[in-house]
Design goal:
The protein is of the alpha+beta class and 632 residues long. The chain contains 11 helices and 44 strands. The strands form 9 sheets. It has a 7-stranded antiparallel sheet. It is globular and about 85 Å long. The two termini are 45 Å apart.
């Protein structure tokens, strides 16, 4: 877990150099702050002062301007967020833009721009009118085609505290109290805005460097210097970087390992690893100006201030943590969803899936609501789904009660289920609003016991932009709500010249048909199809036969139930039928081997837990296997 979208983040952070400079041009004491620009002209007038800017341009009827002018003219605070996201803070207003996306969030409301933010000559260009109006400014046309933007302020008043770098009076250090670290907070260090508290990002106002700090999960054992160095070297190797220098500093006030690397973009990084409080902390600093590893010494003074601890009594430390009672807010901007989850959970906001380390998980599904659908009828459909995928003794339905969530009535349905190795609790929260239905599905091992309180905290924090979704989306489908297990879709491989019909209710793990492999999961089972041009069919059959026979002799709860010679897709195939127990879960497995006329070997592997061996599930597997056919 490190440097996801590193290149785009680095580029964006350096592109924001103009955004974070020029603060002296802000006329805080003026009653009216004013900006005058003209499309196609690099000349601008900011609060009466002539300035040179990147030329504004128009696209799709939208005037695009450098994002920097909102700070220069109106004192807005600009922060780098996750990925290619930038946040603009002005008084009580918050605007979130993403490079290349027409979706703009204004004070929690979703707005769609006719033109998406874009990069021009390493400058972040943004739609003028939407941002100006969002911070309370007026836009009008002046003489000679000038565009005039005015923002009224109280006489002598300064902008509201946006918690940016320029408003942190008295703060000389910065850190995170929950993850237990701190470092110097020099003038010009600009914090990013990450939804993952274990990651902190920074850039400097001169655009010369970019810094990431990662707090890794707590460990049961201490990490020595060899472990710290290996952590960095492994990360660099996985990222395809060239190591230019590596050292350990055991005598430092806070001992650390350090490497200096060059990435594929020829950017030079100084990377450090510290240990403290049961965690490994990794720091990654990229320089815009460094030409060799020796140039990275200029950042030692800053990095040497890092401490793997946080002093809550020190009022000079700015705390980045937003953790409250072990919960932290997360959000999905596409669907206007925000909620609080346990801070230790892993969050995949794009797919709306959240997972804890003790077996807990929560997923959010959104789809159009069919006409006439009610919460009660929908609950009945979900129960019917489980009847098709779980045997009766493996699923127990509990109560269904009316509750409130996100300011609307909802239905909470509870159940328990097992795969054969213990029972799980499931809570399904259902809402229908504005033509869409929302399912919040929570599961956890039954023995946790505290799941009810934790889930209730999540529900209490849930906020959904029902109105915005109704305006923004058309018809949506989610296969989680599919009622017919017999519906399939045809998949094909142009490289290996075959087709196969896959049930729509299955979930794709990967679909690399032209790269030899495809894999799917469904409740209590899996389907995998693999092609190989290097295997020999007779040898593969012989090896599997020996392996399974030997496993049956020495492995408890493993039996080879049979080997059959059948015909599949018009060619001979060998089927191995197995019953086994994996991690306490009894399941049936079949492995099918066959080849085509070019001697390419194909292997189909299916698994199905005993508790999920319903007629519908077995029929879906059989349909997929028998549908395999050669392309004509």
């Amino acid at each position: 877990m490190r440097r996801f979208q590193k290149t785009s983040i680095l580029l964006l952070s350096l592109a924001l150099t103009l955004v974070t400079s020029g603060i002296h041009n802000v006329a805080y004491a003026a009653e009216v702050q004013e900006l005058r620009i003209k499309v196609g002209s690099k000349n601008a007038e900011i609060n009466g002062s002539a300035q040179t800017i990147i030329q504004p341009y128009q696209t799709h009827g939208v005037t695009m301007v450098p994002l920097s002018i909102f700070k220069k003219a109106f004192g807005a605070d600009i922060k780098l967020g996750d990925g290619n996201t930038v946040k603009i803070l002005k008084g009580k207003h918050s605007i979130s833009l993403t490079l290349g996306s027409p979706v703009i969030w204004v004070d929690g409301r979703k707005i769609r721009s006719e033109a998406a933010p874009a990069m021009l000559n390493n400058t972040f260009m943004a739609p003028l009118r939407i941002i100006a109006s969002s911070i309370g400014a007026s836009v009008s046309t002046g003489e000679g085609g000038q565009i005039v933007v005015r923002l009224k302020t109280e006489e002598g008043a300064e902008p509201a505290d946006n918690e940016g770098i320029d408003t942190d009076t008295g703060k000389t250090r910065i850190g995170n109290s929950y993850y237990g670290w701190s470092m110097q907070y020099p003038s010009g260090l600009i914090p990013g805005n990450s939804s993952d508290e274990s990651v902190a990002t920074f850039s400097d106002s001169e655009g010369t460097y970019y810094l990431e700090i990662y707090a890794r999960p707590k460990m049961s054992e201490t990490a020595d210097m060899d472990t710290l160095l290996d952590t960095l070297l492994t990360s660099a190797s996985n990222s395809g970087e060239t190591v230019l220098d590596q050292q350990t500093f055991e005598q430092a006030r806070n001992p650390y390992a350090r490497i200096i690397t060059m990435d594929d973009d020829d950017s030079i990084w100084q990377e450090r690893a510290y240990y403290g409080g049961g965690r490994i902390y990794t720091l990654y600093l990229a320089s815009r100006t460094a030409k060799s590893y020796k140039d990275m010494q200029q950042y030692d003074a800053l990095l040497d201030t890092f401490e793997p601890r946080f002093d809550s009594s020190d009022k000079s430390v700015k705390d980045l943590s937003t953790v409250t009672d072990g919960m932290v807010e997360t959000y999905n901007e596409d669907f206007g969803l925000s909620l609080q989850i346990p801070v230790e959970w892993d969050a995949d906001n794009s797919d709306r899936v959240f997972r804890g380390r003790n077996g807990e998980s929560l997923s959010i599904h959104v789809a159009s609501a069919p006409a006439g659908l009610t919460l009660d009828s929908w609950a009945g459909q979900l129960r019917d789904q489980h009847k098709r995928t779980f045997l009766p003794d493996a699923y127990k339905w509990g109560t269904a009660v009316q509750v409130e969530a996100s300011g609307d009535k909802a239905l909470l349905q509870q159940a328990e289920y097992t795969y054969g190795n213990g029972w799980y609790q499931e809570k399904q929260l259902m809402l229908i609003n504005g033509g869409y239905r929302y399912l919040i599905d929570y599961t956890a091992p039954k023995e946790l016991g505290s799941g009810t309180d934790r889930f209730q905290n999540i529900v209490d924090s849930l906020d959904i932009d029902f109105e915005g979704n109704s305006e923004f989306f058309g018809k949506l489908e989610d296969r989680r709500f599919l009622l017919d297990t017999t519906r399939t879709v045809k998949k094909s491989s142009n490289r290996y010249h075959y087709t196969v019909n896959i049930p729509l209710y299955w979930t794709a793990v990967n679909e690399r048909y032209d790269q030899s492999q495809a894999e799917y999961q469904f409740p209590g089972g899996s389907f995998e199809l693999e092609a190989s041009s290097t295997r020999d069919l007779d040898l593969a059959v012989w090896q599997l036969k020996n392996y399974f026979n030997e496993a049956a002799k020495i492995t408890r709860d493993f039996s080879l139930q049979g080997i059959e010679n059948v015909t599949l897709a018009g060619v001979p195939a060998t089927v191995f039928r197995i019953h086994q127990t994996v991690k306490g879960v009894p399941q049936s497995k079949q492995v099918i081997l066959f080849s085509d006329s070019d001697d390419q070997v194909y292997q189909i592997t299916t698994t199905l837990n005993d508790t999920n061996s319903t007629p519908e599930q077995k029929a879906a597997l059989e349909t997929a296997v028998k549908s395999f056919a050669w392309m004509k």
